[in-house]
């Protein structure tokens, strides 16, 4: 059996993202008051996702560790009524996901050799785009009054899965209409995400196909 190596790093990231999305749905559907569970799940998945980062990349590991620590501390404080550090938590989570996206993009764009890890990586980048915009929408829910139709004003952990759902139906340009932006700034990010999703798929497919053809001709 082939052992997991640094060359299979995207499998860790894909696994953690899928677990996060599915378990968030489970908690949202079957547990009414589960903010602490959701926060613990996010931190666990973030920590698991950096397992695949090569040990020699000390900068990335240190940067991820700092953001995870900030998210844990601010998130725990936000669970108490006397403190509201939601924006600190959300910005640290957003920066973490953006750093993961940038790191993954550097590895999957125009690869010299198309491997299963590269294909999994391209899927991870697509999922990270959706998660990044989800945190952007959650930040807007904290900053603005009623920025989205179909989303109530409540703690961001309670809105997490609904916002993830909205983000991905926007990224895929499905747009069911059950949640929609009500203000100009949210609308800007919504159409930006739609454009990002469409162009990413076209560019990534073309990149993988051209790399595969070049690999066959070599």
UniProtKB/TrEMBL annotation:
<feature type="transmembrane region" description="Helical">
    <location>
        <begin position="117"/>
        <end position="139"/>
    </location>
</feature>
<keyword id="KW-0472">Membrane</keyword>
<feature type="transmembrane region" description="Helical">
    <location>
        <begin position="37"/>
        <end position="55"/>
    </location>
</feature>
<keyword id="KW-0812">Transmembrane</keyword>
<dbReference type="Pfam" id="PF07885">
    <property type="entry name" value="Ion_trans_2"/>
</dbReference>
<feature type="transmembrane region" description="Helical">
    <location>
        <begin position="62"/>
        <end position="80"/>
    </location>
</feature>
<dbReference type="InterPro" id="IPR013099">
    <property type="entry name" value="K_chnl_dom"/>
</dbReference>
<feature type="transmembrane region" description="Helical">
    <location>
        <begin position="159"/>
        <end position="176"/>
    </location>
</feature>
<feature type="transmembrane region" description="Helical">
    <location>
        <begin position="188"/>
        <end position="209"/>
    </location>
</feature>
<feature type="transmembrane region" description="Helical">
    <location>
        <begin position="86"/>
        <end position="105"/>
    </location>
</feature>
<keyword id="KW-0813">Transport</keyword>
<protein>
    <submittedName>
        <fullName>Potassium channel protein</fullName>
    </submittedName>
</protein>
<keyword id="KW-1133">Transmembrane helix</keyword>
<keyword id="KW-0406">Ion transport</keyword>
<feature type="domain" description="Potassium channel">
    <location>
        <begin position="126"/>
        <end position="209"/>
    </location>
</feature>
<keyword id="KW-0407">Ion channel</keyword>
<dbReference type="GO" id="GO:0034220">
    <property type="term" value="P:monoatomic ion transmembrane transport"/>
</dbReference>
């Amino acid at each position: 059996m082939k052992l997991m190596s640094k060359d299979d790093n995207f499998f860790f990231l894909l696994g953690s993202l899928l677990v996060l999305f599915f378990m968030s749905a489970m908690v949202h559907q079957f547990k009414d008051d589960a903010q602490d569970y959701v926060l613990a799940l996010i931190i666990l998945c973030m920590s698991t996702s950096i397992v695949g980062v090569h040990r020699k990349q000390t900068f990335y590991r240190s940067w991820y560790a700092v953001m995870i620590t900030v998210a844990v501390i601010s998130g725990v404080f936000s669970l108490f009524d006397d403190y509201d550090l939601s924006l600190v938590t959300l910005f640290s989570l957003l920066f973490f996901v953006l750093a993961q996206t940038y790191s993954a993009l550097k590895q999957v764009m125009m690869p010299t050799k198309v491997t299963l890890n590269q294909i999994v990586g391209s899927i991870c980048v697509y999922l990270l785009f959706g998660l990044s915009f989800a945190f952007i929408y959650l930040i807007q829910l904290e900053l603005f009054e009623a920025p989205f139709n179909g989303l109530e004003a409540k703690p961001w952990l309670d809105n997490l899965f609904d916002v993830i759902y909205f983000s991905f139906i926007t990224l895929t340009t499905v747009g069911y209409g059950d949640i929609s932006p009500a203000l100009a700034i949210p609308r800007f990010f919504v159409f930006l995400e739609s454009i990002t999703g469409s162009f990413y798929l076209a560019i990534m497919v073309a990149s993988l196909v051209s790399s595969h053809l070049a690999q066959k001709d070599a």
